[in-house]
Amino acid sequence: MTTVSQAPLILITGGSRGVGAATARLAAQRGYDVAISYVSNESAAQAVVADVQLLGRKALATRADSADPRQVADLFAAIDREFGRIDVLVNNAGVLALQSRVEALDFERMQRIFAVNAIGPILCAQQAVRRMSYSHNGPGGVVINVSSASARLGSPNEYVDYAAS
Fold first, then answer.
1. How far apart are CA 77 and CA 69, in angstroms?
2. Contacts of residue 132, Cβ cutoff 8 Å, sequence gap at least 6
């Protein structure tokens, strides 16, 4: 009897453009099936899916705001239905607002930036760990958190909230 090994699955949040899209395409080249999340640009997300499929890999794009626990749960449920597994989570989604001095930052802006950039990766990691961790009878896996040089440099007088998040 011959067994066919299943390709590993990588989920990339914020995978419709920039670093996320490039990561999705590279992962497909390296033999991964790819799931991406996106918030607003469905056509960009579908372009990434098409590129992954052209490389002979399976792909899924799901609209999901990583700062929303319900949408994150729905994202992982879609992955469960489509692939039945997850091997790698890349927490890449992030937001940046217009440059602003710290004294001009409004509360809603700070809440949104921290919700997406700091809380979102934890929400996604929780879902991934429930599926991958040995302590949950999973096969193991990897969580990668993408950050910015701003985390080290601080971005004074520009993106203080982004750098902090």
1. 12
2. 86, 87, 89, 138, 139, 140, 141
Q: Where are the alpha helices (DSSP H) in 34-95?
A: 42-54, 69-82
Q: What's the burial of 103, exposed, middle or buried (CB within 10 Å: 0-12/13-18/19+)?
A: exposed
Residues involved in catalysis: 162
Going by the DSSP 8-state scheme, the letter that residue 33 receives in this structure is E
pLDDT digits (tens, 9 = 90+) for 51-100: 999 999 999 999 999 999 999 999 999 999 999 999 999 999 998 887 88
CA atoms within 13 A on the CB side of 90: 23
pTM: 0.92
* Cα distance between residue 72 and residue 63, in whole Å: 10
**Structure tokens given for 154:** 């601080």
